[in-house]
């Protein structure tokens, strides 16, 4: 990775992943593994978890974007991730709007501040 930045990985529905791929996010690593997964109705929970964990372990990925409704399916895995890199960001999809109360990273960040800090 010398001289190059880190990649953005995407786990999402077809519309979300397609949008990011059209924006130039798609890459294959030296082992020909993509940095994205289109989650469909047939995609197993095990495959989603395995892909998410593989993204966390790759040293070429700096940010993991995941549709929030998919994050809810593997919340226990996301909550167990405590490292700052790769950062895990939950994003909305066309069918499922963003709900800040479900975002574990946002809840964690809010917990770092007291009401006094926010005044």
UniProtKB/TrEMBL annotation:
Residues in the signal sequence: none
GO biological process entries: synaptic vesicle lumen acidification
Keyword Ion transport: yes
One Pfam family of this chain: ATP-synt_F
Superkingdom of source: Eukaryota
InterPro entries (alphabetical): ATPase_V1-cplx_f_g_su (IPR008218), ATPase_V1-cplx_fsu_euk (IPR005772), ATPase_V1_fsu_sf (IPR036906)
Single GO MF descriptor: proton-transporting ATPase activity, rotational mechanism
Keywords, in A-Z order: Hydrogen ion transport, Ion transport, Transport
GO cellular component annotations of the record: presynapse; proton-transporting V-type ATPase, V1 domain; vacuolar proton-transporting V-type ATPase complex
Record SUPFAM superfamilies: AtpF-like
Subunit record text: V-ATPase is a heteromultimeric enzyme made up of two complexes: the ATP-hydrolytic V1 complex and the proton translocation V0 complex.
Family of the protein in this entry: Belongs to the V-ATPase F subunit family.
Function description: Subunit of the V1 complex of vacuolar(H+)-ATPase (V-ATPase), a multisubunit enzyme composed of a peripheral complex (V1) that hydrolyzes ATP and a membrane integral complex (V0) that translocates protons. V-ATPase is responsible for acidifying and maintaining the pH of intracellular compartments and in some cell types, is targeted to the plasma membrane, where it is responsible for acidifying the extracellular environment.
Protein name, as recorded: V-type proton ATPase subunit F
Organism field: Sphenodon punctatus
Gene: ATP6V1F
